[in-house]
Amino acid sequence: MSNETKLVIGMPAGSLANPERGGNLVHLLKAAGFPSRGYQDGGPTSFPWHTMLMGWDGRPQEFGAQLALDEIDVAFAGDDWIRERQLEFQYEYKREIPLERIQGLGRGSVRIVVICNPFHGGFDAWMEQLLKTKPLITMISEMPYLAVDWFLKKAASLGHGDTHNQYAVQKYKTPPRIERGVVVYESWGKTEAKVVHHGVDLGVEITQSGSAIRNYGLAIGEEIMHSETAIWASPGMKQNAEKHELARMLLLNLYGAIFAENKVLMFFNAKKDDSEAVLKYLGDNNLFADEPTMNQGPNYTEFSVQMDTRDPKLPIAKVRYELARLGATHIETVPLDSCIPGIGAVDF
Question: Which domain covers residue 330, as residue numbers?
Answer without folding.
Answer: 263-340
